[in-house]
Fold this sequence. Notes:
Residues 247-325, 727-799, 803-868, 873-948, 951-1025, 1029-1097, 1252-1322 form the K Homology domain. By secondary structure, this protein is α+β, with helices and mostly antiparallel strands. It contains 48 helices and 50 strands. The protein has a 4-stranded antiparallel sheet with strand order 46-48-50-49, sandwiched between helices. The protein has a 3-stranded antiparallel sheet with strand order 3-4-5, with no helix packed on it. A hairpin with a 6-residue loop joins strand 27 (690-694) and strand 28 (701-706).
Amino acid sequence: xxxxxxxxxxxxxxxxxxxxxxxxxxxxxxxxxxxxxxxxxxxxxxxxxxxxxxxxxxxxxxxxxxxxxxxxxxxxxxxxxxxxxxxxxxxxxxxxxxxxxxxxxxxxxxxxxxxxxxxxxxxxxxxxxxxxxxxxxxxxxxxxxxxxxxxxxxxxxxxxxxxxxxxxxxxxxxxxxxxxxxxxxxxxxxxxxxxxxxxxxxxxxxxxxxxxxxxxxxxxxxxxxxxxxxxxxxxxxxxxxxxxxxxxxxxxxxxxxxxxxxxxxxxxxxxxxxxxxxxxxxxxxxxxxxxxxxxxxxxxxxxxxxxxxxxxxxxxxxxxxxxxxxxxxxxxxxxxxxxxxxxxxxxxxxxxxxxxxxxxxxxxxxxxxxxxxxxxxxxxxxxxxxxxxxxxxxxxxxxxxxxxxxxxxxxxxxxxxxxxxxxxxxxxxxxxxxxxxxxxxxxxxxxxxxxxxxxxxxxxxxxxxxxxxxxxxxxxxxxxxxxxxxxxxxxxxxxxxxxxxxxxxxxxxxxxxxxxxxxxxxxxxxxxxxxxxxxxxxxxxxxxxxxxxxxxxxxxxxxxxxxxxxxxxxxxxxxxxxxxxxxxxxxxxxxxxxxxxxxxxxxxxxxxxxxxxxxxxxxxxxxxxxxxxxxxxxxxxxxxxxxxxxxxxxxxxxxxxxxxxxxxxxxxxxxxxxxxxxxxxxxxxxxxxxxxxxxxxxxxxxxxxxxxxxxxxxxxxxxxxxxxxxxxxxxxxxxxxxxxxxxxxxxxxxxxxxxxxxxxxxxxxxxxxxxxxxxxxxxxxxxxxxxxxxxxxxxxxxxxxxxxxxxxxxxxxxxxxxxxxxxxxxxxxxxxxxxxxxxxxxxxxxxxxxxxxxxxxxxxxxxxxxxxxxxxxxxxxxxxxxxxxxxxxxxxxxxxxxxxxxxxxxxxxxxxxxxxxxxxxxxxxxxxxxxxxxxxxxxxxxxxxxxxxxxxxxxxxxxxxxxxxxxxxxxxxxxxxxxxxxxxxxxxxxxxxxxxxxxxxxxxxxxxxxxxxxxxxxxxxxxxxxxxxxxxxxxxxxxxxxxxxxxxxxxxxxxxxxxxxxxxxxxxxxxxxxxxxxxxxxxxxxxxxxxxxxxxxxxxxxxxxxxxxxxxxxxxxxxxxxxxxxxxxxxxxxxxxxxxxxxxxxxxxxxxxxxxxxxxxxxxxxxxxxxxxxxxxxxxxxxxxxxxxxxxxxxxxxxxxxxxxxxxxxxxxxxxxxxxxxxxxxxxxxxxxxxxxxxxxxxxxxxxxxxxxxxxxxxxxxxxxxxxxxxxxxxxxxxxxxxxxxxxxxxxxxxxxxxxxxxxxxxxxxxxxxxxxxxxxxx
Length: 1323
């Protein structure tokens, strides 16, 4: 055995190496250089430092670190000493670990695992384990380079040598290797016998042509295996050996959740192939792990579990990780300076004006020479980093570090300056001189001005602002005092008017040689101000000019009166703002207009201004005299009608809530969102309108308002985004190769434009030879919705050149629906997946697939697989079910036949009607069973068993049709009673079939057991005998009293029929007949007549009156029951609705929508605890009242003797004072007089309802205070209702509008009731 201290590894390529063992005395002294001379060697404590320096400038030059991995009891010196004495060491003691820089880490478990091992080394095995020894060998005369760490004192660096190396010839390498491994006793399978072991070894040696030796360690029971042969054969035989002889083991590791689909593969092909290849079990969890989100992957993680032999599961793991690495090899990061950073929660928006973003992006782009790029999108203010994941992460880290460093240098400083003098700050000049941003206050209560910029420049900018404002005078003109001084709303409109048409004041200032400047408050101040100020500024020397300008402004304002404007509020700014501008701008010579939405968020107001003077520089002298008031009014109305074409769209406006996680909203729809721009473009292209409110009504919701087409497109887009929220979705599409130059553009200009517009990256392979017949597959990476939009764009651009083909396939029509899937689900999935168009042509049994060649082939393959499956499962057989057993086979509600369908996965359909004389005469009904052959046979056996097991008989009874209804009874009650008494159950095949109404068949079929049939026959014959003795008698009852014997939901009629065993035949509502027939036994008819007379006696015609109330007034007239109580207790009148009861109940409930969000928002913004709003009543019920029939109020006089009532509840006395005291005089009144009074009161109430066109809303921050409005026992609220005659609704706690009281009536009544309620709330 020869001692050695140095190992030379010659790398033939990135992963292949040849190992040479070198004696110390063969190393030239000049090469013994200390390891610290190598710049790329990080750890100088290594035993060996080797480098291939044959080409110093070659990027592929590598430095190698080789370090012996000694056990705790072994040192370097002891190994060297032992090697001199010929001692061997096991792999675990002396095996080198090799790491190659700038390439994947290599960690070999044994010498044999090296890709190439010099044949000068060999393996030696003994009972103690696997050893490796080194023979004396002849060292190559010329080595590329070898550096020793022994000569530590040699200071000469490697660059000082002038050393040339001749090319070394490669040694011969043996293809046969030897591999040894040990299997512990506890890892053996439990049933391992010598016979089984021998059989396995013999089988493997024969199968792979390898030599396998085995021995057992006596003390431990562990088994050593030595395999010799070709490397590939040895590795596979080792795996199968471990699989047969060792217990299965399990490992678990995590993978990115979104890579599951790639691991599973199409229809599970990929995961199944890995499982079969290594004969292992693979379990992928279907849900991500909690708290496993990785921001660099932009994904959660899930567990992957492998079960099998140790060798197979490691190989399978490598295959799975290879798929994972392929899926996540690229990364994409977006750093938007308009949003808070998700990495470190820094807000970089404040530093945006102070940094050169393009320069930063260019520096980062040049920083790394690998496959990651960085550029800045100036439109979206966003850094985009994409490419190799490792390099992209590094660039992102450096960018965050750069931005964080810059943000530290930027500060904000606030100083107090009165609002009046803030106009003196020259913001533009300060920004130009110092690069400082100045932000004025947005509230009259806040006088702070914010200076933002670099620390050293902020103070200088503040000092400059103070110095530059010296010597200036500010005069304030309060416009709110104009036109009577009580119309702040109008004067604020004037300020917005002057802000839009700023040329008016600029011309005025120019007329005074620009010695005076006129300033208007910012828009937010105007909206929340209690006055309307205009500021006039001049130097102290020109203070006289201020007075003249002030007079000019007053003159201008006096020319525009409130009668010269028209307010329009019914056009949503966010939806139609652009349309309004486009329409009114075309008519700008006749009218001026201001859209407050241009200045104030969520404001729909449009103000039309009559042209009382010229607001532009054009034709300055066109105006002479102001038009008359009538001319102005006519002009305003005419111009407002220009917006009428928008009315159909306005009526089409709908609202919908879409649930979307708050984080996804912030990520995708932040400031400058590309996806939102694409959505708006898509909606506009289809002539739709859309408004999107994020985080509304809650943070995880989006409110969509728009036309039908706008909502449809928005919902589709948001669904895509919800399903695919990642910005790393990939989609492959194919385009003709000859259009690649057009797609790329000059120096990639078109690709850059596509990236900016759609925020996606397009990966286009290099095309050397353009072949028009061969399409190119490009990969688009980005947000799923954005990908769809860019694909839509590309399809439109290249469709005329692309290689579009159409594939046709003959498919039987009966299979079309199978291929389409439920609600076209299968077709939609294929079209979406492969970007193709699939059509089903029934007339010629064709299915066509149109698209690019690649996509069509993929779709064709999947469609063919689906078709083959359907054909295999579309076998048909016809079976005949006896007519009498059809109902039994079907079962109650289809229970039995549906159970067979589910159990045997078949379809069972009747080929003809199951009822009628034709099938009854034929005796059977044809059914068809569809499915696979095996399933059809099993289902047929089940049907046959049901038929064969039935020993039922059937019997026909000829019964006169006039008795059929009596045998059935109301809701089948009598028929069920017959079956129950006979011991039958229709659901178990025992039934009585009575011909349907309208049939000419008199025969009743009784089917079931013999006992059931006989018993049911007796029951039916007995009942018919009784019916034959029945008679029918007609009685006359006034039409208006028919409802009394019908009752609510027919309950009175049902009670009479059941109690006396009779049948009542009452004319329909539309019939004019007053005859009611009673059928039954004579004695039962008499009893029924007495009962009816008793009911009618309680309701005499002398005590009733009918009043017709329009349906739309039912709620207001009834006052939710209060008006009915008033009639009852004040006038002894009961109100009944007869047959209109249900409709009366329906329309007595609230049928309108309270604008709770609007009222609540206004209440909260007012900073008051209680607000009272009065406005025109708007019916939001969407009910067509013209088509609703009126409701009949039947007033019934029913006097009460209050003297027999004892009022223990004083609150009830307060509620109805007429009930207390000597009020029996009311009872003594004639019934006609009472009815007349009640009728007049009701008619007056109806007339009042017609004028009740106002609604009041009282919002209270604390709804618990509403108990004060209700009062004890409702006394207070009923008093308010009685005095004001209004409809008042106190909300329930469960209602959305639980903090809003609703009032309806005339304007005067609403205000009176509202004031009374406010008084109660204050008390």
